[in-house]
Amino acid sequence: MRGCCGIALFCLSMVLSGCQSNNDGPWYDATGRGRGQATWDMDSGRCHTYADGNTQSPDGSNYSGLSNAGKGLTAAGDILQAIAADAQRMASYRNCLNAAGWTLNAPRIAAREPSIPQPEMTQQPQQQPSPQLSPEQLGDQAYNQKNYAEALKFYLKGDVRGNGNLQNRIGTMYQNGFGVTQDYAHAVEWYRRSAYVGSSDGQTNLGRMYLNGNGVQKDSREAIIWLLKAADQGNTFAQNDLGFVYLNGHGATADYTLAMKMFLASAAKGNGVAQYNIGVMYMKALGVPKDYVQAYKWFTLSLKSLPAEDDPSRAIVHRDRDFIATNMSALQIADAQRLAQDWNPA
What we know:
Layout lengths: L11 H6 L10 E2 L6 H17 L15 H8 L3 H7 L7 H7 L2 E2 L31 H10 L3 H10 L6 H13 L7 H13 L3 H13 L7 H13 L3 H13 L7 H12 L4 H13 L7 H14 L5 H15 L4 H13 L4
Helix pairs in contact: 2-5, 3-4, 6-7, 8-9, 9-10, 10-11, 11-12, 12-13, 13-14, 14-15, 14-16, 15-16, 15-17
């Protein structure tokens, strides 16, 4: 018996190193499937087994006579069935290998398994995980999308203790009925929480609720206390509100000097309502001499500061500026426009 394996299909040494014969030649895989050295050794062992038991047919150099059945079985990788189908054509070891798809007198595949082409891997930039948003941030997103009910749910899920800005926002939602039924009492409760932790916006809004008697008994003195706290922090809305209180004498005798002081502080921060109020004081001679040039100047500044969408407020300013313009010369109007242009809040 040629070869080292005996019954080669079940020989341990064949599995590890393959069976070779002195008659093995330089074969290569003619199927184009790149089956490699291990497959060569397996097919070689099978052909040894068959050819050793069948010596009826001599070796031949023409292997084109394989049957279609043998070729098909070979292509499917079932060499034993291919040998059985083409027994007469595979009587020799060489013919058997030919049936298995190995061709003589050409370079044999290198003694290694074919490398399987790997997909080209490109280095992808590592994506940073998206930071998890807090309930307050999720609430802000919903609020900005005017989904107020959803915003309030998120706000209340978070920790609102000590968060004056968030407490103030919740108060405005209750005051204006954003996502909830309008409820002044609840608004006051949230404004009070915000005011106590030092939020100037919460203090301003609480002062306004006392000033107007919304959700609490009207109390001008209590209003002034909270507005002063906010104004001391530089809150421009509180400063304007205090100017209005002093101008109209809410809870005390009117004090035009203090009113002008508060209006000027707020106007310097670009508060268009405060700028209008200063114009009114010059137009009506409230604590200052009547001066249409100054009034026209402050009305013009107010129109520059008020939001474009605030049509009602802008309409009032236009009305009053047009009124005094009828009592001014062209030179006075030009002078007022120049003063407005040159105005520097610093």
